[in-house]
Sequence to fold (134 residues):
Amino acid sequence: MPLALTHPAGSAKQTTAVAAWPATAAAADAELARLAELLADAGVTTVPAAGALTAPGLAAGPGDTTGIRVRTTSNPPHALYLIAAGRLTPHTTADSAFAHLRPLIEAAARPCDGCGAEAGEPCNPFCLPDPTTD
Fold:
């Protein structure tokens, strides 16, 4: 059974419904710089490098000791590739990547009931959070 498109490819409705991927590596790098600004405004320390951004103090969950990384590529499709807890998630804009990170930022601002780590401190690597706090 053929798949019917709601809007033909390239139509005005289709192109406005989906955010455009950065057109060039430079545009992806600009989005990465914008993400660094958004994270800094949220109080997250980042370490920039060529085509990459690391937030070592921002964990993807209990036991995560590597932190969050965001990379771009020099080859299409250009995007911000968010790497957290072994998962690679592409984002078209800094705002999209930041929205993905917001729950982690908010969680880092609270103490952990599972291992007793204070707010802003990493959890014990074998932490199992209290299931009643989720």
Remarks:
- The first strand starts at residue 47 and ends at 49.
- Residues 1-17, 130-134 have pLDDT under 50 and may be disordered.
- Residues 27 and 92 are 10 Å apart (CA to CA).
